[in-house]
LHPL6 protein (Lophotis ruficrista), 129 residues
Amino acid sequence: MASSLTCAGVVWAFLSFLCAATSCVGFFMPYWLLGSQLEKSVSFGTFRRCSYPVRDESRQTTVMVEQCGRYASFQAIPSAEWRICTVVTGLGCGLLLLVALTALMGCCVSELISRTVGRVAGGIQFLGG
């Protein structure tokens, strides 16, 4: 297999992939904020939540749903700041994955990544991070 990367480029490609994967896992996990509500453990992230309160109209009380799930819609995310964070973090993870997968392909394909492409990819990684 021919490679268009130097040894430093191969290390960069694998570290890029590990960082992108870690960022994506962090983005999809609902454990950004931890706390308790109604004597239950509660956690939520930008678009996922675990153990959240729901109004039970038949009993006229608030009960805790003890499961994890996404918000029903984008507008159901609690605040505009969290919505912006969801979009920005999602785009960042997408950019990081794009660069990492391209770099990994450069390990296997000759003449895929040139010096200019490497510099542009580094800039995209900086923006994605």
Observations:
- The mean pLDDT is 81.
- The chain has one domain: 5-126.
- Residues 5-126 form one domain.
- DSSP finds three helices and four strands in the chain.
